[in-house]
Fold:
Amino acid sequence: MTKQIGDLADIAHKVAVEEYYKRMEAEHPSQVIFYNIFNKIFAEQIINEAVACCGSQADMRNIRKRFGLPVESNIKYPSPDAIGHYSQYGREYNIPKE
Structure:
């Protein structure tokens, strides 16, 4: 496991603990609920890291859609500046039909 995945797991654990204790005030959640919260947050973080590595806006959108994360078809993801060549970031969106 890389350090980055370990860091994501630590963040997910911290958020899951906070959410779990918020729920304890209203109900008596089980450990299963804690692990469900942790798994959801951890998975979302890993997916977002994978999306951040993509160069294509369509790939970013498709990865998020594939794993059930919210997708906005009108988002223009941040890109590096074009360096003397035609960049995909200036083109129209190539959004797959649903």
About this structure: DSSP finds three helices and no strands in the chain. The mean pLDDT is 78.
